[in-house]
Every structure is written in C-alpha cells, then in structure tokens.
Specification:
The complex is a heterodimer of chains A (375) and B (233). Chain A is 59% helix and 20% strand. Chain A is of the alpha+beta class and 375 residues long. Chain B has a single domain (3-228), classed as P-loop containing nucleotide triphosphate hydrolases (Rossmann fold, 3-Layer(aba) Sandwich). The chains are: A alpha+beta (375), B alpha/beta (233). The interface between A and B is medium-sized, with 24 and 29 residues. The structure holds adenosine-5'-triphosphate and magnesium ion.
Amino acid sequence: MLSLKIAARFLKSSPGQSALIIAGIAVGIATQIFVGSLITSLQADLIDAAVGSSPHITLLPGDGASTVPGTAATTASKSELLVATAIPVRTLSAIYTSGEDSVPLSIAGGDATDLGLIYNLEDRMVSGTYRLGAGEALVGTVFAAKYDVGPGDPLELLLPDGTMAEFTVSGVFDLGQATANERVAFVDAASAADALGLADDEYTAIQIQLTDVFASTEVADRLGSDNDVTATDWQEENAELLSGLAAQSGSSIMIQVFVLVAVALGIASTLAISAVQKTRQIGILKAIGMGDGAAGRIFLWQAALLGAGGTLGGIALGYALIWGFSFAPVPFSIRPEPTFIAISAGIGITVALLSSIIPARSTSRLDPIEVIQNG
Amino acid sequence: MADLLVVDAIEKVYGEGSAATRALSGVSFTVAEGEFASIVGQSGSGKSTLLNLIGLLDTPTSGRVTLTGENTTALGRAGRARLRNEALGFVFQFHYLLPEFSVWENLTMPVQIARRTVSGEERDRALETLALLGLEGLERKNANQLSGGQKQRVAIGRALMNRPKLILADEPTGNLDTANTEAVYELFRTINAELGTTFLIVTHDRVVAQQTDRILEVRDGELVQDVRNDYAG
Ligand SMILES: Nc1ncnc2c1ncn2[C@@H]1O[C@H](COP(=O)(O)OP(=O)(O)OP(=O)(O)O)[C@@H](O)[C@H]1O
Ligand SMILES: [Mg+2]
C-alpha cells in the first residue's frame, strides 16, 4: 500500500494542518453525538413520562354495550404480536370527602399483578405495601399528602350509585405526574365489581401496553374493527406532545446535517490545499512511473486517515461531553446511543471519503510534464 | 545491435491557432543499446521537448516513439507510466527528490512503485548504488538535509534503481560546480561501461558533449547534425 504510506507521510509532514482538521472533524462528530443523544434521551424520557406507566390503548364497550368481556384481553394478546400486556379493569369515578373539601377520584379496579404490569406500580411505591386485598386501595403521593392519609388509614368514598364504601389504604404510589398522583386510585377487582354491580366476567375496559408505543394507532384500528369494542390510543390524546417531539427531531436533524456539511467543507478544503501543495511530489511520482489510480488514492487515504482519526477523537469527545453533562443540575441524564454513534462514525468517514473525490480526481489527472517543465 | 529507441518523424506543437509554437518539426533518429550520446543545441531549440517526448512525459503532435520494440504512441496512460518505471530513468537539472522521504526511501521509490516491497536483491542493489555514488551512511537522512551535489547523486541513484535500459538526462549538472559536474559524468561513463545502460544527455555545454560518443544537434526544432565522436573518452 504505497499510496497509504505516502498519504501518511504527507499528513505527517504538515502536522499542524493535520491536527487542525482532525480536531475540526472531532468537534463536528462530538457535537453530532452529543446533540443526537441528548434529543433521543430527552424524547425517550418525555414519552416514558407520558405513556411509560399508563395504557397505550384502551378498549371500551362497543355501541349499545356497557361492559367488555374479560376474554377481550386474551384475544388482543393472542391476535397482536405487538401487545405486551392486556388486562381487564373496572373503572369508576368516586368522590372523596374530607371536611369541607371533596375531590373526585378516578378509580381503576383490578388484579394487583395485572395493574402492576401497566402502571409499573411495584417500582413506584413510596410507602406501604404493594397489595390489593379485598377492600384495599392504593393512592397517590399528592393525594396522600393533601388529605393526610397513609398506609393503614381508612378511605371513604362516595360511589356513583350514591352509596358509601370504605377501603383501607395499603400503600402510596408516585406515578411521576402530579395530576395522576392526586386523582388516581387503585382498588381490588371484586370491590370495583360490587361498586358497579358487575358480574365476574364483566369489565368496563381493557388496558393494553405495546412493545412499540408508536404502533398504537395502527393496532388500535385493528382491535377496534374486529371486536365488539371501541379502541382509543394514547397518540390521539397526546397530539400536541407528538407534534412537539416531531419538531424537536426535525431541528435536531437540521443541526446534524449542518454540522456534517461544515465537516465535509473542512476536509474538502484541507485536502484541496494539500493536493495543491503536493502537486510537485505527485508529478515526480508519476514521472517515475506511479499510475493515475495509485496517485489519486493518496488523497483518498489521506481523507480516510483524517476521517478515522477525527471520528475516533469525536467519539471520545462525545462521550466526555455526555459524561460531563451527567453533573449538570437537570432532572434527566443522556444515554449514549451505540447505534446512533456507529451511524455518526460511518457518516463521518463517508463524508471524509466523499470530500476527497475532487482532489483525488484532479490528482489522478495531473500530467507529470506539468511539474517537470515548470521546475 | 538492436535499436533500443526509434524516433520517427516526431512533431510537437504547443498551443493552438495564432498562439501555436512549433517546438519540433519532423525529428527522426535511432539509438542502439549501450550508446552514450548527447543532444546539443541553443536555448529554445527543442532539446527538452525532444527528451520529454522520448521519456513519455509528453505526447507528440504527430510521429511515433518506439522504445524497446513497443510503439509508445499506441499506449495509454497506464502503459506509459509502466514503461517510465521499468525502462526509463530520468535525471533533470533539478533533482526532484521527495522532501518528505529519506534518502533510502527516495532511492527505492521506483521499486516500491513497481512492486510495493523491496526484495533482498534490490536492497543489496540500493546499497551498492549508494556506495557507487559515494552516499554511504546518508540513507537515513532526509532528502532535504543533503547538499546540492548529494541530492543530484541520489536522483541519479533513483534513476538507476530499476536497472532501466535508457537513462535520459536533461542538463544534469546545470546546478553543480565543476568538480561535481566531472564526478557526475564519470559516474555516467562507469554505469554505461559496467551495466551497458544507454545514455541520452541534453547539454548546451560543448565540452561535455565532446566527451560523448555521439552528438545530435537540434536547431529550431530540427535535427541538423548527427555525428560519431571518435575523440571521446
Ligand atoms: N509548455 C510550452 N508551451 C508553449 N511553448 C513551449 C512550451 N515548452 C516549450 N515551449 C517552446 O518550445 C520551444 C522549445 O523549448 P525547449 O524547452 O524544448 O527548449 P530547450 O532546447 O530545452 O531550451 P533550453 O536550453 O533553454 O532548456 C521553445 O520555443 C519554447 O518556448
Ligand atoms: Mg531545456
């Protein structure tokens, strides 16, 4: 690989120029990795906060019906590969009164294990036990603090039919959203059935989580069409969040494209300068028999070496930035995305190689006589 | 002896239209293997043009150059590059060494271009060449760190590395003092005698030309004299 050897020697012969361009590529790639990982992590956090611990699709009774059968959950899991969890629940509204105040609560009744799958409750308990025995309830942190209730305390609720029911608080959870922590409560399945007057196999909704949150519309369409149920998905209800995320992704891609263009221009101009500086050497090499292809490859190799060096430096710098960011006083952390970094590295090297095309071509076209005649 | 080089009615016109310069008009001659010849003529007569055409650095406007039996006019760029590497050696007025490389690397560059690696035999040859040129011990030095005479000797060594049939020299001592000049021509003579390498040397120095076996004179782009010089050596 004589071309590679000559390329390396040319780069070594102007160390300042080489170091500058490698630093330039490194900063570009690092920016790309940092901004890309920042946006990806930020969005993952936002989506997780929005729907990580809530249903992605809810199946409600179809036209004319007032309940859904429990078997609809099993059917959904079996028919759709993307369904991770499907549980039958009984939802109702109740009113909690404390002295002067009365507050409406949105109550989901179901099996403790089932509810845990959707709401991730086990990890979200802040006090008490994660348990829903007969007559037990779980309440949120904001509610618990506001009305001064905790594990073991009684919880009296006014049910939709006008009767009162008494529960015992078994634990307090934190769902990560203030509204949910104030207005949501969970009770056991049987108590909810009693409150609503439902039979064993009658439910008010099927709550579903998917392995891919963005497939919800498509899956909801299918589930809603071939069952006696109507399906709603989270994307319908979070259109604003989604358009915000899309705008954010768009601007992140713009930033990355501009960074890459800047990197490409940097490499291209450095190589063009180098090609001019080394015209004489190329002419000499051609005079003593180097072929056009081998001569052109010298600049391809220079680009590859600069691209590889800059990309490696950029990855290191990118990780350093992400690590440095972990000390910043913000409530989320950036996770370096290996696939994203691999793509950045690939793009970096490709851009370097592409930007060497012009100098490589002009070099391969050079006639040795142009150098020999002009001294 | 077989003709190493046949120059057949070559013409060279630089530029086009009213700016056209006719540098050579219909030059023909042959050179046999082992000859030691010079090309003389006034400045601007077309000597360098002729040498560059023979050296396949440039292409004639018409006519043909046949080298080691190959019609070079029919060759593409790659074929001409290969012949430059294998069959020809160049020594110019300026040394044209590669400043980024050491003396050893400059010397072995033609071998590396041809075969990528330097064999044991070629290594020995390079060492012999350094000894012949009085450059022992300088192989690790950078090409930039040599004196003018030393650089020119490295350039001569480089021209010899692939054991070419023909060495083309254009004012090879133009930048050297008298002592170095004599040393270079002595070296050429030695190489010619020991290796049988053919030499074609461009010079405007009559004294130098007198020491070669054959003198070709170019005037206004035409070959006006071609004489055997029996007083040489
Ligand atoms: N690239 C070129 N473009 C136009 N004209 C050229 C070019 N090269 C040479 N010439 C012209 O061709 C003629 C021959 O030039 P050449 O260099 O062969 O002369 P020379 O005999 O080597 O002279 P010198 O002894 O000064 O080196 C001159 O008239 C020169 O001006
Ligand atoms: Mg000349």
